[in-house]
């Protein structure tokens, strides 16, 4: 059932994945993987508040696993709940202090709140700890753009694009190049 629900989710059949995961949860109530699939399906269906509840259950089952908190953070972000988004990212860091995704999430949250000093500090720590990770280079570019430093952003975006070319990186690269 787990493989089926995951396959349904990745092939765009989120409603089917949710149904399969819910059925499986009845048979295997302590299996966290079904909560993950159900919550991700709920997010794919635009059911952010339901996903929050599902991922809260996951965190209750696996409180010491950073991934559980990261999934809950994503649901809070989808539900536009910044405060609980932040708390969940911080909980992920408490579970795994060097967690890259939680650290990037906190930096992006600071950037979104226009708290540039915090975003710059967090991005600097990430650059020190993960200098060649494309997601960190992308964040550094975004921070540089927020500081109106397109030449610095261009360098970071170029590094991110060279390591992992994608359309978002291409767009950011072009935008920085033309400023």
Report on the architecture of this protein.
79% of the residues lie in helices and 0% in strands. The longest helix is centred in the N-terminal third of the chain and has 14 residues. It has 179 residues and is mainly α. The model has no long low-confidence stretch (mean pLDDT 96). The termini are far apart. The protein contains eleven helices and no strands.
End-to-end separation in angstroms reads 51 Å
Biggest sheet overview: none
Count of discrete alpha- or pi-helical segments spanning 4 or more residues: 11
**Series of secondary-structure elements, N-terminal to C-terminal:** HHHHHHHHHHH
Keywords:
79% helix, mainly alpha, 179 residues, single chain, 11 helices
Brief overview:
By secondary structure, the protein is mainly α.
Give the arrangement of secondary structure elements.
Layout: H1 2-10, H2 14-27, H3 32-44, H4 48-61, H5 66-78, H6 82-95, H7 100-112, H8 116-129, H9 134-146, H10 150-163, H11 167-177
Helix pairs in contact: 1-2, 1-3, 2-3, 3-4, 3-5, 4-5, 5-6, 6-7, 7-8, 7-9, 8-9, 9-10, 10-11
